[in-house]
C-alpha cells in the first residue's frame, strides 16, 4: 500500500501540470502514454513494437489520435482521411501476413488493429475532453477515482457476492454498487463547488452510467490480462502495474461522455 501511495503521488505530480496546461504539451504526453499502452498490449501477445506489424500498429494509433483540427490539415495536405489511413494499415498488415507465410496470421492482424483502435480512440477522447474544458477532465477523473475507491472499500467491508469471479475474483456486487454511489456523491459535491453545464438529474444519470462503464473498462482489461496470463499490463508504475492498468476505466468513460453529449 505504501508503494502504491508513493507512486500515485509522484505520477499525479508529473501528470496534473500537463492536464492543467493542456495544449500541445498535453497532446504530446497523451501520444507517449498511448504508445506505451499499445506496447503493453503487444507484449501480452508477444509481438515486438519494433517489428513491422508493431510499427504499423503504432502509426495507426498516432493516426487515430490526431485531433480533429490537425486531422483536417493532414487531409488537406495528403488528400487522405483518417479512415483511408486505417485502410492502408489493414492492407499492409494483410500483405505482411502473406509475405511471412502466415507466421503472422489473420488473428494477429486483427489483434493489432483492435489494440490500436482500443488505445487510440480512448486516448483521443482524452485530448478532445481536455480541449472542451479542464472541468470535464476533472469530472471524469473524479468519477473514475471515486468509483474505484468506493468499490474497493465497500467491497472490502461488506462484499459477499462475487461480481464476475471468472474475470476478477476480488470484485463484488456490493463493491460495484458502492462504487456507483460514491461516484454520485462526489459528482454532486463537484456540482456544488464548480457547477457543470447540466442539470442535477442529467448529472446523476450520466454519473451512474459513467461509473458503470468505468467498472466495465476495468473488467475488460482484467479479461484481456487473464486471457494472456499476465498479472499486470506492465511494470512502469510500481504497485499499480502499467499504463493500461491505470487508464482502463478512462478509456471507456471519456468516449462515453461524448457519445451521450454530456460534453
How would you describe the overall organization of this protein?
The structure is a single chain. It contains eleven helices and two strands. The protein has 263 residues and is mostly helical. It has two domains: 1-132, no CATH class; 134-263, no CATH class. It has a two-stranded antiparallel ribbon with strand order 1-2. Strand 1 (162-164) and strand 2 form a beta hairpin. The two termini are 35 Å apart.
Q: Which labels suit this protein?
A:
263 residues; mainly alpha; 2 domains; two-stranded antiparallel ribbon; 76% helix; lipid biosynthesis
Short description:
Helices cover 76% and strands 3% of the residues. With 263 residues, the chain is mainly alpha-helical.
Give the arrangement of secondary structure elements.
Blueprint: H1 2-21, H2 23-44, H3 52-64, H4 68-78, H5 82-99, H6 106-132, H7 134-158, E1 162-164, E2 168-172, H8 173-193, H9 200-228, H10 243-247, H11 250-259
Antiparallel strand pairs: 1-2
Largest sheet: 2 strands, antiparallel
Question: With helices defined by DSSP (H or I, 4 residues minimum), what is the helix count?
Answer: 11
Fraction of residues in β-strands: under 5%
Whole-number total of structural domains: 2
Helix content: over 70%
Give the total of beta strands.
Answer: 2
Low-confidence runs: none
Order of helices and strands: HHHHHHHEEHHHH
Membrane topology: Multi-pass membrane protein
GO molecular function: phosphatidate cytidylyltransferase activity
InterPro entries: PC_trans
Keywords: Cell membrane, Lipid biosynthesis, Lipid metabolism, Membrane, Nucleotidyltransferase, Phospholipid biosynthesis, Phospholipid metabolism, Transferase, Transmembrane, Transmembrane helix
